[in-house]
Input
Amino acid sequence: MASKLTRADRAIVRLADGTVKQQNLLTGTEVWTVPGRGNRPLAAPRADHDPIDHEAHGRHCAFCSKRYLETPPEKSRLVRRDDGTWEQLDALGADKLSDTVAEFRRIPNLFEIVSYNYWHLNHGHIPSENDRHRMARYLASDAGYEHVMNVVRARMLASGMSDGEFAATSETARLQAANGFFSGGHDLIVAKRHFVDGATEAHQLAGSGTLTPEEHAQYTAYTARSMRDLYDLNPAVRYVATFQNWLRPRRRLLRSPPQAAGRHRRPGSPDRGRARAPARPARHLRPDFHGRRHPQAPDRPERARRRPGRIRPPLPGNRDLAAAFAAQPVGG
Output
């Protein structure tokens, strides 16, 4: 689309699904405003030292193991068998979700960045034959139909629709709103643990850094396989981006999961609640040619030149390359 527009026309483009693309004509930076994204519920992280309510185990949040029906229908899950082997289960029905406890789940993002309607209205995307069959099988059971309708209702009410307005919508409209659950391009990878093992206080949340090396390898390989699957969504998909929201200390890392293709994580902004840096002292405000004052860093001694050939060691941390695990078999 961009190649058919003049340079001035590219400054602001409104797409059929409501997405607005704005481009800075000087720098080329492009910003998208996505409809519905701001409707997601944001919750502040727990930073208190209150004791954990162990009676709520498995129900602490909508991603926990006893609340599977509060998220959109999962696309797959990774389970660990009693003998220590790992197995990927695909397209489980609603009546099978509680038969196993998932170590990791791949679920559609309820509030997508690049939504199903974006692909459908702007690029002619329609569900594949496999996606249509999976949706039909899921809706064929009473539990599956009720699950999908409840999640559609929750999203519509979050968008500002009233109970009366939702009741007035047709079944066809509700089913169309569920297409993205089975043929969308923004998924979450959600881990099992809410708190670290042995946690006693509410701030002791689990994260990717609390996974074992084996769990982290399976988690990364599973994400890589999910990435590969999303390339087949539509011919217009140029690349799949997988990312993880690295939030403030004590804020959940994996529960707001890594994201592919879009792929998203739990509600929350990395900058929410972050203190701003204090202003520089007035002695660093120096007048310019016009008498205006601008912050200027104090004079500092010139840094020593780096010795030729010296290479800094890589930073520590879990920064595994997902592509390196793409060919790894489950349980490998």
